[in-house]
Amino acid sequence: MINQFRNLNPVNLILLVVIAFVLRIGVLLQLPDHLDFSLFEPYAGILIQLPEDLFSPFSNIFYSTVIILLQAMVLNRIVNSYNLLGKPSFLPALMYVTVSAMLEPFVVLNPVLIANFLILWMIEKFFSIYRRESVLPVLFDLGMITALGTLIYFPFIGMMPLLWVSLVIFRPFNWREWVAGLVGFIAVVFFLCTIYYLTDSLGGFVNILPRVTRFRTGFHVNLYDYIVLIPVAVILILSVFTLQQKFYRSNVHVRKSYFILIFLVLFTIVSFNITREYNIHHFLLAMPPLAILMAHFFTSSTKRWFYESLYLILAAFIIYFQFV
User: Fold this and answer.
1) Which residue in 116, 101, 105 sits closest to 37, CA to CA?
2) Boundaries of domain holding 211
3) What are the residues whose beta carbons fall under 8 Å from the beta carbon of 146, sequence distance 6 or more?
4) pLDDT digits over 285-300, tens only?
5) How many domains does the chain have?
6) Transmembrane residues, as ranges (predicted)?
């Protein structure tokens, strides 16, 4: 399977669709009676409102899978365009489709899944910073993208410091570039406040804003539900080792790009503490960088029996724990 996706073969598109639905077979065969879906945070509901029962449980899973496949193809194009793996392949798409099926909250429509389109957009813009003479428009766009993501899912605001981290990694200091992202963010917030003002709802806007919580110190979770993460953890550890071995042999842009991906994962973990609610689907924000890191291992690994077996174990864990 992995060997097939190491090549940029159009047939892999069909295989990717089949794998995406196979990895969700347990959820599809045990559909709940009802699944809620909301596109925007309550404070952004003035822009558009969708009924919570808009989709049936089956259509909810189906459209979620279609979105995952679209995002996988976008991620694959970005990785191949910037040559992060050394050669073009379909492995980033395969890894994204796989890790997005790890847990049941990942496979249903949720705001984080929609916000991942913006994460992919941000990743591509981050990678493009290194090759540009002027990045003011890029930083302004990134600020607006972050604000749009915050309208969909409030903890997305935790991506804002990533704009400045990218400047530290890719650019010499220029205060205008540091301000540009903030201006872009404020522009979207100002637009939203203007709509509330014109509809005489500005007072209500303040009341429905989410409240930031203290850093969580403990969770009440059933660890049995997360055994499926063990193969993923093994692959990521192996990926770190392979990345370290080739790190200084890669060009400067590739090395800095991987730093951005690592910081994206870190900021996803930190932003989990922004809201009071415990939503495991929050970690879908980390799926694009994790998929790239996993793809790096499967690209670099030379023992076919090992990497093929490791992927089959991961797929088996995902399907098994959907049934139990």
Assistant:
1) 105
2) 2-323
3) 118, 122, 156, 157, 159, 160, 163, 181, 184, 185
4) 999 999 999 999 998 8
5) 1
6) 12-31, 61-79, 91-123, 143-166, 178-199, 223-244, 256-274, 280-298, 305-323
